[in-house]
Amino acid sequence: MAKRDNKVIMEVRASRATMEDKAVKANKDNKVIMAKVDNRVIMEVMAKVDNRVIMEVMAKRVTMVKAQMLDTIVRVKGLMATNKI
């Protein structure tokens, strides 16, 4: 799961980097100022969506890890309690 997520994030970053390059090239070319503006708007929208998605994935993963850790701690405490008795 983590491998696939990383690949997706890397692909998103790569596509964003190429878009930024295009925006810079468009910026140099005065004829294509509109393209630069459009690219920046699209990139901002993509970044917002990507960040939200990535945050949600991270949050789910963190809560899962926390749940597993708590479960383990509860089990260990349970074992220790039964051993003491």
Automatic annotation (TrEMBL):
Superkingdom of origin: Eukaryota
Upper taxonomic lineage: Eukaryota, Metazoa, Chordata, Craniata, Vertebrata
Name of the protein: Uncharacterized protein
Organism of provenance: Pelobates cultripes
